[in-house]
Amino acid sequence: APKKLLVLPGDGIGPEIMHEVRRIMDWMAQARGIRFDVSEDLVGGASLAVHGQPITQEVIDAARAADAVLFGSVGDPKWASAGFDRRPEIAILKLRQELGLFANLRPAKVFDSLADASTLKPEVVRGLDIMIVRETVGGIYFGTPRGIETLPDGSRRGINTEVYTTAEIERVARVAFDLARKRDNRVCSVEKCNVMESGLLWKEVVTALHAREYADVELTHMLADNCAMQMVRNPRQFDVIVTGNLFGDLLSDLASMLTGSLGMLPSATLGARGEDGRLPALYEPIHGSAPDIAGQGKANPLAQILSFAMLLRYSFDMQDEAALIETAVSNVLDKGLRTPDIMSAGRTEVNTDGMGSAVLAE
Amino acid sequence: APKKLLVLPGDGIGPEIMHEVRRIMDWMAQARGIRFDVSEDLVGGASLAVHGQPITQEVIDAARAADAVLFGSVGDPKWASAGFDRRPEIAILKLRQELGLFANLRPAKVFDSLADASTLKPEVVRGLDIMIVRETVGGIYFGTPRGIETLPDGSRRGINTEVYTTAEIERVARVAFDLARKRDNRVCSVEKCNVMESGLLWKEVVTALHAREYADVELTHMLADNCAMQMVRNPRQFDVIVTGNLFGDLLSDLASMLTGSLGMLPSATLGARGEDGRLPALYEPIHGSAPDIAGQGKANPLAQILSFAMLLRYSFDMQDEAALIETAVSNVLDKGLRTPDIMSAGRTEVNTDGMGSAVLAE
Ligand SMILES: CC(C)[C@H](C(=O)O)[C@@H](O)C(=O)O
Ligand SMILES: CC(C)[C@H](C(=O)O)[C@@H](O)C(=O)O
């Protein structure tokens, strides 16, 4: 039976960049006879507009039943004041939690042909290749108690709780150590153990797991504030970084921006392999929905296309097809084609569709 | 009566850079007849070694009685495994909390003569001048419940709580708006209101205060992950940033590193003016204790010297003396003198004492 693929374009530029992936899927079917069982549905603001909620139970069920989810991006200023329970962002938070997608893998890699696109000096970022493993179903994102309460004097109090258990820390650290073994064999674990007990436990659990099962991998520890600095000072010192949900949110965005080409970076969020051997997995570009340029043909579809390549590689074990797409993207960049976000002097500017066509042509 | 000044050099390079400030104080007494009532005491690892605790009640009382505190830096790897209650860092956390020092002002400014020291391209950072106002007595640093508990199955759970009240948010936002009025009149408030209710309250309270009392100041809002990105993408878009304790910790370190000269940046942490008109205030360099270079004469004393200038300006209203020191520092840099941390080709390398002497000579 063909693999089941759920496509969730979402808001903003999501639909237009996803369209370029659909064209690649069509080409795979025609030229190579590779067919997927693809269904598409609404999430985020798009779902709010139709169903009054950022994601429906049907979509969550469909995601659970799929072999992999290809996600666009959510977020729409239209819903900015719609209330905390009707944020488009809930779509991705719910998918992570309901499917148990606990490990967000975010590579920050500088493409040789784009080393100049960074705001950092080329000699600082050339060859940069960091993999951030961010925990995504725990920490302050989901801990309780949480909420806003009104105090007797009429003023208010906002509360959120950061919680991490041994098991939650271990499983995400395992992902990081396993990845490191296939890379430069170094893991840097990041927390604020000098201020937060949850960070102290994080450090202790990672250290113990390392001693028990991963002594061959080099492990270092870094405070989150220092990590933010070190990423700017000397980002190439890092191989794999493992950290909690909130620090991972900031640090992975920071790392991406070092590359200067946000529109190029894919990500995978993985769960635990089930008894049936299936790996819950969602793939998405690291960039957001960019409502300011939506519908203008300016969006860079490469991160979405590379997210699809990542999906083929990790979820469907289609190494050849994944490599084919990745090489096509490299070639297109080498030929000097650029969407506006990565445009520079002497290159050829193309729009979303033009970039998609160029990748197809390769 | 002369102003009471409490000097707390702390650990690592703290004592040696503070020594350079003491030389300036001596000069002020001799050459200008300006005398302070200075006392000096131990904090951090230095206090742990003598008193078994990172800060004694006597030192806290002395800080409370002083007109201003000049702090060096704390942190010493010797005490890394001494337990959560015996961290050198407790010294600064306790001083903030006990003196009610709720607003940490951290300027990230690029000195013209040092624009090349940044890892960012000079055209991205030249003229950069950000003021980060970080809340420092609330949020996840101090919220309860907190701790590590053992679960029935023997595994553990680490917990921290982020709490912000209307009053805590308002008073720090006020500091930011007031500062903005003396600068470029723009405030960017940073939180994660799309994920955290405490961030949602933060945004609402800042928005309401703005409408009520500061409508003349331009106010924008930014998510913390986006802010980390924007600082790398285009840091000059910011004037004043106001944010909570944890985000402020990461973002202010990040902003400092953009300048490429961490050893140059002072900070002030201010409380609420008391009924007696006194403003509780602590001044410290933004860099850490740098144990790796301690005692080698390599440390850059300028951040500590500029922290003293900030103290003269804000706490003692000695504008002329503050300007004298700041101009001396500028001149020394213009003459090409550099400690190892900011050394570059064609400049003259000096040690800690040499830099201090050069400032004195000016
Ligand atoms: C959309 C938002 C809830 C999300 C997050 O904060 O996790 C995003 O910033 C991300 O990094 O995936
Ligand atoms: C020393 C440490 C507790 C402190 C903090 O995290 O607040 C430091 O990083 C700072 O920014 O002043």
UniProtKB/TrEMBL annotation, chains A, B:
Instruction: Name the InterPro entries for this protein.
Output: IsoCit/isopropylmalate_DH_CS (IPR019818), IsoPropMal-DH-like_dom (IPR024084), Isopropylmalate_DH (IPR004429)
Per its UniProt record, the required cofactor names are: Mn(2+); Mg(2+)
Q: Where does Mg(2+) bind?
A: D225, D249, D253
Task: State the top-level EC class.
Answer: oxidoreductase
Describe the location of the Isopropylmalate dehydrogenase-like domain by residue ranges.
4-359
Q: In which pathway does it act?
A: Amino-acid biosynthesis; L-leucine biosynthesis; L-leucine from 3-methyl-2-oxobutanoate: step 3/4
One GO biological-process annotation of the entry reads: L-leucine biosynthetic process
Q: Where is this site: Important for catalysis?
A: Y141, K192
What catalytic reaction does the record list? (2R,3S)-3-isopropylmalate + NAD(+) = 4-methyl-2-oxopentanoate + CO2 + NADH
SUPFAM superfamilies, from UniProt? Isocitrate/Isopropylmalate dehydrogenase-like
Would I find Transcription regulation among this entry's keywords?
no
Q: Which Gene3D superfamilies match?
A: Isopropylmalate Dehydrogenase (3.40.718.10)
Which Gene Ontology cellular-component terms appear in the entry?
cytosol
Q: Name the domain of life this protein comes from.
A: Bacteria
Q: Which GO terms describe its molecular function?
A: 3-isopropylmalate dehydrogenase activity; magnesium ion binding; NAD binding
Q: Which residues bind NAD(+)?
A: G288, S289, A290, P291, D292, I293, A294, G295, Q296, G297, K298, A299, N300
User: What family does this chain come from, according to its entry?
Assistant: Belongs to the isocitrate and isopropylmalate dehydrogenases family. LeuB type 1 subfamily.
Binding partners and assembly: Homodimer.
Please identify the protein, giving its name as recorded.
Answer: 3-isopropylmalate dehydrogenase
The species this protein was found in: Komagataeibacter melaceti
